[in-house]
């Protein structure tokens, strides 16, 4: 009976890591898109009120910060067994990928 419990716990743990990795991958694309939109808004034409553009940019930055602080950073730490050095190295890869996606949009 205990073996079944341990196997179930192990399976749940492994599936969480897989889901976490998939979520981080999805969030990379989302963050790249947020950056792309922010880049466009940085040069918004004068036909749009500057206060509206700034409010939108503030919202995008807040959402990007939420994604990073509440999803990506903790997810990378969990994925790397709380090894901060590995998570930092992986974050550098994530940042490079986001930059590549942003430039391709």
Calculate Rg over CA atoms: 18 Å
Largest sheet: none
Determine the mean pLDDT: 83
Secondary-structure class: mainly alpha
Descriptive report:
There is one protein chain. The protein has 105 residues and is mostly helical. Helix content is 88%, strand content 0%. The protein is built from 3 helices and no strands. Helix 1 (2-42) runs antiparallel to helix 2 (50-79) and helix 1 crosses helix 3. The radius of gyration is 18 Å and the shape is elongated. The relative contact order is 0.13.
Can you give me a brief rundown of this structure?
This protein is 88% helix and 0% strand.
Helix-strand layout with pairing:
Elements: H1 2-42, H2 50-79, H3 84-104
Helix pairs in contact: 1-2, 1-3, 2-3
């Amino acid at each position: 009976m205990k073996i079944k419990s341990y196997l179930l716990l192990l399976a749940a743990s492994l599936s969480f890591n897989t889901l976490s990795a998939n979520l981080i991958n999805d969030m990379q694309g989302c963050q790249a898109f947020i950056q792309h939109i922010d880049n466009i808004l940085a040069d918004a034409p004068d036909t749009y009120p500057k206060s509206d553009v700034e409010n939108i940019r503030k919202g995008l930055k807040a959402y990007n910060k939420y994604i990073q602080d509440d999803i990506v950073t903790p997810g990378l730490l969990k994925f790397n067994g709380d090894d901060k050095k590995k998570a930092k190295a992986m974050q550098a890869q994530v940042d490079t990928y986001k930059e590549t996606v942003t430039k391709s949009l």
